Amino acid sequence: MTTLVVATDGSALGNPGAGGWAWYVHPQHYGCGGDPGPVTNNQMEIIALTRALEANTDTHLLLEIDSQYVINAVTKWHFGWRRRDWTNSKGEPVANRELLEAALLLLAVRKEQGLHTDFRWVRGHEGHPRNEEADRHAREQAFLARNTNQRTRTGITPAN
Fold first, then answer.
1. Tell me, which fold does domain 3-156 have in CATH?
2. Which of 18, 67, 96, 117 could form a Cys-Cys staple with 45, CB 3.0–4.6 A?
3. Is 9 designated active site?
């Protein structure tokens, strides 16, 4: 089985403010959406990951993400947070718990199905083609959600 390379990105206008998320493989295979908010950039980054996992369920994935927060949250930090009943090292509730739990559940299901999910950090705004496209779609959706004051969702997601 081949590995599909997917870039994800999130955007928040004002942080918090209206937000957008996107995952991108190529012009015929992507998804994106927006929320009038207020939402944060981190929330949109997690939703981008979740939507990418939901849309690409039958292949190994290499996720290119420019958010070290998201990568660390779903690959490292969640172990400690769970041991501490979803509190951080300061004893405070973990931000974005519900969104992170949804992403972690999808990752666990993929693992049970024998599907590999790997992560690669890419520096944002450095000319990485898939990341730039994911960023462009996320920002467009944030502006659209802000201007229409409603949630948005679009994309092309053919069967793999």
1. Nucleotidyltransferase; domain 5 (3.30.420)
2. 67
3. yes
